[in-house]
Amino acid sequence: MGFILNPLYNIVSGVMVAIHKVVSPIFGADSGVTWAISIMGLVVLIRIILIPLFVKQIKSQRAMTALQPHMKEIQKKYKDDRQKQSEEMMKLYKEHKTNPLASCFPIIAQAPIFFALFTVLNGIAKNKPHGFLKGDYLVSAAQAKFFGAPISETFLGSDKVTVKIVTVLLIAFMSGTTFTTQRQLMVKGMPKMDSSNNMMLQQQKIMLYLFPIIFAVSGVNFPVGVLIYWSTTNLWTWGQQYYVIKRNPTPGSPAYEELQRKRAHKAKLDGKSENSTETDSDQDQTQEVQGQRQQPKKKKKKK
Q: Domain residues of the chain, as ranges?
C-alpha cells in the first residue's frame, strides 16, 4: 500500500518543500507561517489544476436543473416501480451526458491528496519521513507552530490547551464555510424548484447539513496542518462559487434574475443618457438654424 501511495507522498511533500524554500527567507525556515503558507500554496496549486472539474461540475448541475421536468415525469410514471424508475433515470442521464454525482467530483478528486497530506503530517509527529519531507525539513516542520499549536498535532492527540483552542477554531471555520458555500448555492445559485419528490433538491439539502457535521466530527482527528489545508480549500470553493453565481448564474436562479434586472436598469439608464444627449444636440442645432435665419433688422432712415 505504501509503495502505491509513494508518488502521492512525493508530490505533496515536494510542493510543500518547494514553497518552503521560496518563503523561508522572508519568515524563517522554522516559522509556522512559512509552513502554513506551504500548505496553503499546495491548496492553491491543486485547486487551479481542478478548475476543469469545477467547470464540469457547474455544467452538470445546470443540466440536472434543466432535466427536472423530465425527471418528475419519470417519477410520476413509474412511482410504483422503483427499479424501472432508476433504469429510466439512468437512460436520461446517459442521453443528456450528465451525472448527478458531478457536484462531488472536486471533493473526490482531492481525497487522495488529502490522505497523502494527512499521512505526511502524521509522519512529522512520529519522526517518520515521507517523500521529500525528511532530514532538516522534517525537524523544521516538527518545530513549526500555527498560533502556538504544532502543525502536526491533533485535538485528541494533544493535552495542550493551545492545540485544542486552535483546532476547535479551525474546525468551526471549516464547518462554517462548508455550510455557507452550500447554502449560497441553494439560495442564490439554483432555480426555484418544487420541493416535493425532488431528488436534486433533497441531495443538496443532505449536503447542506451532512458535510459540516462530518467535518466537525472527524476534524478532532486531523492534524492542525490538515485543518489549515481543508479550511483554505473551503474558502477557495466559497470564493470560486461566489464569482460564478455573481458573473455567470444559472438561468432561472435568483442570482440570474437579479443580474437581468441590473442589466435592464443599466440599459435603461444608458438609453436615457443617449436620448438626453440627442435632445441637447437637436436643441443646439435648432438654435444655430434660428440664429442663422434671424438676422438683425436695419432701421429705415427717415426722409
A: 2-257
Grade residue 152 by pLDDT with cuts at 50, 70 and 90. Answer: confident
Q: What pLDDT digit, counting tens, does each position of 81-99 carry? A: 778 888 888 888 777 767 6
C-beta of residue 249 within 8 angstroms of C-beta of residue 189 = yes
Q: Which burial class, exposed, middle or buried, applies to 163 when counting CB atoms under 10 A from its CB (0-12, 13-18, 19+)?
A: buried
Pick the more confident residue, 102 or 225: 225
What is the mean pLDDT of the segment spanning 29-52?
Answer: 88
- pLDDT for 237 equals 87
299 or 46: which carries more pLDDT confidence?
A: 46
